[in-house]
Protein 1
Amino acid sequence: MAEVLLKDVVKEYGSVEAVKKLNLCCNDKEFLVLLGPSGCGKSSTLRMIAGLEDITRGQISIGGVVVNDTHPSKRDIAMVFETYALYPHKTVFENMAYPLRVRKTPGPEIDQKVRRAAEILEIESFLDRYPRQLSGGQKQRVAIGRAIVREPKVFLMDEPISHLDAKLRSHMRGELKHLHKELNQTFIYVSHDQTEAMAMADRIAVMNLGELQQFDTPQNIFNKPVNTFVAGFVGDPPMNFLPSLQTLEGDKWVLKFDGFTLKVSEKLRSQIIASGTKFQQDLEVILGARPEHIILKTERTSEEDMAGKIYITEPLGSYMIVDVMLGGERIKVRADIGFNVEPDDRVFVELPPDKIQLFNAKTSNSIIHPMDDVSGCAANGQ
Ligand code: ADP
Ligand code: MG
């Protein structure tokens, strides 16, 4: 078993608090992605798990054993970095064999393990080459191969493919996900790329400014973001945010913004009540709507439709992104490529009431999906 548990983990570099009281429970054999913008503390977290950085405060355990004072080589982990750190004067075979040579593993066993890893990574045909004779993607496979031969319980990867070109990156995402299935071990993977996280993770831990924001499945991160940071970080183009007022009109809850009024649906209303959030009259909120959930039309079909004006269209092959001015706000909508409009055309915007998100404008926290235990530890009784 190789679950990785972080308890109240803090990392300080002098006066910089890079990681703030982080609680995180990664299950055995899980593919966990640490996602967040540059500087949010992802690498510091990974390096503390690896033992390459001291833990300022708190506790880290791997497979039930506290490793705070355990040397990296004794943690049963292997780390893959963005820079491949291959030895230029060693062949691919020798680069991969290196960790086993250090351990004084017998030759025939090294041969068998290196060949097996090369087979998994489909690099058997260049075992005799030198790193300079390989492409970026191939070098990264060798670096991963060197991690595989160690047969660690936990693979730690820090943005291993972020410098590759877009096409290769997309290919490697599939490869790494396949590799995870094949090896059936715990993966903790650092990325600033939400597409990568959404595509690969069993669960995503979203971080910002050294703090864990949300830790959940890609589906829940996308559909039930707990605050505006998570809502805005995941999705492309990102969620639209409209500053609004939540209020009562007669006995109906409504949202008002820029002269528009949107009824709060029964479904959303019962979701909000179920979440334990009380209705607050005249509360300033942020209404969130994803570009793919908004419906655009050239004719008004319901009295709730809001009149807007086309700002610009961006055709992207199979679909297009349309920028619409809605009152004083500019929103992005994903529309069918056949939606035939020109800048300045009048359009009608439908915000499906069950698909919208609502955040408290002051706290940025979701009114619909309030945050409880973000660590993911409750599920496994930690
Ligand atoms: P990320 O990997 O998410 O980009 P890091 O963990 O590398 O973030 O960095 C988190 C914060 O800690 C940043 O503000 C960074 O400048 C700071 N930091 C990282 N490493 C060091 C270090 N060795 N000394 C001082 N500050 C550091
Ligand atoms: Mg980093």
Protein 2
Amino acid sequence: MKVLGIETSCDDTAIGIVNYGRGRFVIQAQVEASQVLIHRKYGGVVPEVAAREHAVTIIPTLKAALRRARVVWNDLDVIAVTAGPGLMTALSVGVETARTLSYALKKPLVRVNHIEGHIISNWIHPAAAKIRFPAVALIVSGGHTELILVKSIGQYKLLGRTLDDAVGEAFDKVAKLLGLTYPGGPSVAKRALRGNPAAFSFPRALMGRGNLDFSYAGLKTAVLYEWRKHRRRSVKLVNDLCASFQAAATDQLVAKSRWAMDKTRAKTLLLAGGVAANELLRRRLSSIVNREFPGARYFQAPLSLCMDNGVMIAMAGAFHATHRRFTPWKKIRADPNWELV
Ligand code: KG4
Ligand code: ZN
């Protein structure tokens, strides 16, 4: 089955084409038109600007993906598109494009939840057959910080989520405060390598044992207050702030993932989303699963699929297509607040 995936929920116009057969995925094309340079000026994503850029780039990006996969329109079996959650104006560009393609090519259409797409990106792993249920998925991005119980593909239960900022958003805001480039995650992580994570003791919120919710507003504010205290703003200060912030941010993610694994007796921990690219987080989660949960396995999305992409949407679309969960082109709508669970 050849599936086209279209993703325009935020600031990447992303297309993926995957081949799915005998439980395995082969990526045939992954093309992204990133708007990072455009949004960098503002230090964040401007919805109207994002939507206009999606409208300009979506057709050329689709064509580039077809060329790369060496397929023509009629070779596609299924069209999958992110219908939410995300920015309404941005989602609409992808959904309207998918609707038009489904009608014109007479191909079935699958609406995909963006968060489910991130979860399913883990199935690209060659050992994905070893993903056992129940699994716990930690989804961390610029818009999301969620712990989800995955009973099986398509059956989810929310275990915990952020009560205020998403962790990626906290990385982005701290980077902006310290004058580092957008997106903030990679810039903060890079500076943190040279800093001392114990230089400042920043708060770890909601650390009552077993609490599976997250909070990043207090941490972000603590970094702001510390920054304001210093008249001389050296490179060392920025590095130490980054390292101490990153340590506090990841402590919260690691502690709650551990409790979620404990509580649900999960057999697998899955990590995905933009912040899943963070090296420290990857190392720490891998080490707690290996040390503390004998018999359980840890999977993390490959770096190439951490940021928003069309491949993960095509993969989720393939799973739903095998169960014939299609949406008629007349009925599909973008749903900016679509809750997975
Ligand atoms: O999943 P994604 O591409 O878009 C959303 O759905 O939000 O995630 C983007 C987020 C941004 O906040 C970015 O700063 C963060 O992922 N990010 C990182 C790293 N690389 C990207 N955060 C921490 N460490 C990184 N290495
Ligand atoms: Zn995302």
